[in-house]
Structure formats: C-alpha cells, structure tokens
Amino acid sequence: MTNSVQRFTLENLHTRGEWVSLEETWQKIQDTNSNYPPAVRNVLGEALAAISLLAESLKFDGSLTLQIRGTQPVTMLVVQANSNAGIRGIAHWQGDIPDKTSFKQLFGTGTLVISVENTQKKGQQKGERYQSLVSLNGENLAECFKEYFAQSEQLKTQLWLAADESRVAGLMLQSLPESKLDKVAQADNWTHATVLAETIKKQELLTLDSETLLNRLYHDEELRLYEPKNVHFECSCSQQKIEDTIFSLGEKEANDIVIEHGEISINCEFCNTKYQLDAVDVNRLFSESKVTNNNKTLH
C-alpha cells in the first residue's frame, strides 16, 4: 500500500511541489471511528492529505495542526502531523448527514485554524507556538487553503485534494522565492504550472502513482523527482500525559471521581487507547508529587 509524500521541482518553471498518497495509514485512522458519514469522512481525508503536504515544510522538531471549528452539523475537525511524518485526525458531528452534503453545509460559518508548535528544546525551554486563522469562505478545503496562503503573505501556493473510503491523495505547488526571473515571467510560469494541474481529475489523483501522474501533467517540463518519504499513523497520547491531566485536576477532585465511578477512565479519541487509574494509581500519583516537592525543599 502507498503511504508516502514526495517532493518534486519543475525547474524550468521555478516551481516546487509535493504529492501525497495514503492508503493503510488512512485505514488505520478510519478504524478509530468506522461510523463517519461519507461526506465527513472525505473532508477528514482531504485534511489529512493537506496536513501531510504542509508538514513537509517544517524545518524543526515540532508539529502542525489544522483545526476546523464549525457550527453544524460538523462541530470540529482536527488533523495533526509532526516532523517525523506521523499523522492523526478526528472529526465530531451531529445528526444524520446526507452523502451529498457540501463543504459549506458541513461546517456552516466556521473557521480554519493552523497552529505550528516547535518542540525543539532551546536549553530547557521549548520553542514558540503560533496560530493563523481564516474564515471558511471557499467551496471546498483546497479553496480555503488558497485564501489562507493569499492572506499570510507566504509563497504562492495551491492544493488539489481528493479522498474516498480507500485512499486520500493531494498535490501542492509553490512558486519558488529564489527565482531570478522578473515578476511577469515568474507569474507566467506559475500560471502555466497551475493551469496544467487544474486538468487533474480526482480519480487520477486517487489512483495514479506520483511518477505517472506528474509525467502526465508535466511531460514537456524539466521535472525532477526526489525520494519519497513514508507517512504513518502516530498518536502522541501516553500514560504520562494522562497522569499529568489527572494531576491538574487536583487530588480532591481526582479522588471524588474514583469514589463515584470506581476509577478514572479516559479514552484517546485519536487511537482508541483506554487509560484507567484506580484508587491505588491516584494515590501513587499524588504521593510521588509530594515526595518530589519535599526533596526540592530539602535541597
């Protein structure tokens, strides 16, 4: 199965790009919730393709998160990719959603938020985190990204996205900043590259391998393909993170939950891993903290 992202350049057009195709990884993400309505499933797949393409631009250890905050019936969609090509994603929705529901009908008057977090340590401090927001004015996710890049004053960028039950795929083009051409010539190159990409049919994007697809589109151009990179499903949940969350509740509230329910049970929505802590676990958690604090006081 194909689970990879691949960079390429159109050297005579001073344009770079990326192609992604996910099958097994996409199946694993769907397995965490097999009840996605087709319309929701497809947008989630397109978002995963998009975040996989965008994450290739990360030049540091960190993560890139795309979140769509909708009104209804899809209230939230979140996908995340890290610098190790690990991805994950979920969506929340309400009620029955017809198969032909449009992108705008899915999210209403929503907002697209892109967050970048640098987890690379600088001494003992983690790097910075920042967010960008854009309204969901496009007819589909790819159009929303076009508006996002236009507003963010970054490189000219355009995406083509496709998803079905079996596979998700995407193509991204960016105009190179280091071109020595004048603005008119560079604009002509960009137009030429994107006009050719506009001829892609979704079925071609979903079924053709990168070499076949790109040679079909750019057989008259100076196309250079780089080695593909594997993309895999990866969840960042852990026992330590769950215990940190419970610790943040405070000892009294944690013990109250155990008294009422017999344990604290938390399910990770991204991977369906279930974490359970009983009274002994909660007592250990807060006892260890007291010992640590006492040691700090003594020193």
Kindly estimate the percentage of residues that lie in beta strands according to DSSP. 25-35%
What characterizes the major β-sheet? Answer: 6 strands, antiparallel
Percent in helix = 25-40%
Poorly predicted regions are 294-299
The average pLDDT is 85
Structural class: alpha+beta
Q: What gross morphology would you assign?
A: elongated
Topology, number of strands: 16
Give the SSE string.
EEHHEEEHEEEEHEEHHHEEEHHEEH
> Looking at CATH, which topology of the largest domain would you report?
Hsp33 domain
Could you give me the name of the CATH homologous superfamily of the largest domain?
A: Hsp33 domain
Gross CATH architecture of the largest domain: 3-Layer(bab) Sandwich
Radius of gyration: 22 Å
Oligomeric state of the chains present here: single chain
CATH class of the largest domain: Alpha Beta
What is the distance, rounded to the nearest whole angstrom, between the alpha carbons of the first and last residues? Answer: 56 Å
Number of helices: 10
Number of domains: 2
